[in-house]
Design goal:
The chain is of the alpha/beta class. It has one domain: Maf protein, CATH 3.90.950.10. The chain contains 5 helices and 6 strands, in the order E-H-E-H-E-H-E-E-E-H-H. A 6-stranded mixed beta sheet has the order 2-1-3-4-5-6. Helix 1 runs parallel beside helix 5. The relative contact order is 0.15. Bound molecules: inosinic acid.
C-alpha cells in the first residue's frame, strides 16, 4: 500500500520514512507523487490542521495520506505561539523574526520558562475516520541563542534532562526524542495494532 505525505519538507519526510517505512510498500512526498496542493491551515489546534491537510490530500489522490502540524507552546504565554508558530511575527516563515518576538514576550517573565514542542499527526485512509496521534517534548526557553543545528525556535529550546539547546544537540539526538518522533512512534503502534486485528479476522 502507498502512503502520501502532505508535505515537501525533506527533514520531515526522512523522519517519517525512517519510522513508518516498514508499514507501507511505498512512502512518497507530494512532489514525488506529482501533486501540488497547499490547503489553508485555518484550524485552531494542531490536530485540526493536520486533519485539514491529510483530508485534502486523501480527497485529491484517493490514496492514504499523512499530515503533521507542529509548533511551540510556552507556559507563561498561555500556550502561544502554538498553531501560529510559523507566523508568530505576523507573517509566514521568518525564523529570525519569530524568535525575536518570542524572546521579547518571554523576557517579561522569570526563569524557568517552561515550554513544549507539540506535533499532531493525522493519517487518513480514504473513506475512513482519521487516525490522530500527538507527541510533545518538554523543555525550557533560554534568552540567549545557542547552536546552529535544527531550525525555528531550536536555538532557544533546552529539552528537559539536557543542558544544551536543540540547536546544539546532534540531529540524531533531537530526532530520537522530538515531538514528531513521539507522534510517529504512537502512529506506528496504532498501525501495527490495526494490522494485527485485520490478520486475526
Ligand atoms: P510546521 O508544522 O512545519 O507548520 O511548523 C510550524 C512551526 O513550528 C515551524 O515553522 C517552527 O517555527 C515551529 N516548529 C515546529 N517544530 C519545530 C522544531 O522541531 N524545532 C523548531 N521549531 C519548530
Amino acid at each position: 500500500m502507498k502512503l502520501l505525505i502532505a508535505s515537501n519538507n525533506a527533514n520531515k519526510i526522512r523522519e517519517i520514512k525512517a519510522i513508518l517505512g516498514g508499514c507501507f510498500d511505498e512512502i512518497l512526498s507530494l512532489r514525488e507523487a506529482g501533486y501540488d496542493i497547499d490547503p489553508e491551515e485555518n484550524g485552531v489546534t494542531f490536530e485540526e490542521n493536520a486533519v485539514i491537510k491529510a483530508q485534502a490530500v486523501a480527497d485529491l489522490t484517493g490514496l492514504p495520506a499523512l499530515a503533521d502540524d507542529s509548533g511551540l507552546e510556552v507556559d507563561c504565554l498561555h500556550g502561544a505561539p502554538g498553531v501560529y508558530s510559523a507566523r508568530y511575527c505576523g507573517y509566514h516563515g521568518d525564523d529570525a523574526a519569530n524568535n525575536a518576538k518570542l524572546i521579547e514576550e518571554v523576557s517579561k517573565f522569570p526563569d524557568p520558562r517552561g515550554a513544549q514542542y507539540a506535533c499532531a499527526l493525522a493519517l487518513i485512509f480514504p473513506g475512513k475516520v482519521p487516525i490522530i496521534t500527538k507527541g510533545v517534548c518538554r523543555g525550557t526557553i533560554q534568552l540567549e541563542p545557542k547552536g546552529h543545528n535544527g531550525f525555528g525556535y531550536d536555538p532557544y529550546f533546552i529539552p528537559d534532562g539536557f543542558d544544551k539547546t536543540f540547536a546544539e544537540l546532534p540531529a540524531e539526538v533531537k530526532n530520537g526524542m522530538s515531538h514528531r518522533a513521539k507522534a510517529l512512534e504512537l502512529l506506528k503502534q496504532q498501525l501495527s495494532g490495526l494490522s494485527r486485528k485485520e490478520n486475526a479476522q
